[in-house]
Amino acid sequence: MDPINLLESRIENLEIQIFGDKLPTTNTKNVTSLLLETHAMITSALSCREVISSMLHHLSIINEYLDPNLGVDELEAEAKRYHLLQLYSELKDTVQKIGTLESLLPFIDSENIAKVTELSGNIEQLAVGNMNIYSECQEVTQNVLKSLRNYNEIISTIKILFADLDTEVSLLENSLITEE
Known about the structure:
about 180 residues, single chain, about 80% helix
């Protein structure tokens, strides 16, 4: 079916829906013929006006540039292929992630996951509590390490003192043996 005839039949159907069976008798020409006559009149009126016709020509060029589909066909098949090859690893990872997500769907739809939003406040409080406990554990660990270092220093000092005492006792015994 010709597009003009299709448009004309749609307009007639709309007129019937709006006016019913009683169509206005004042306008006996159909809309498409009126539009064609209007276009012919505008074209003939603008034929003498070069500035306006060039502006309308440039306006149509501007409308072409504003068309969001402009340039879609300009990409060649090789450029599209190259672009897809560049995205291949990302697409492969995305497909794997979708597969993993689909295998996890039964778990995602469980009641426990549905309650996460309700219990998010409790989760935040527990996380803050765990952070406080962690910082306290870090502090206790530092204190224990400091105490162990002090203990090692004391033990080293005691070893040195016992070694000195042993040498002194040995010297004293040797001097007593030599006096006898």
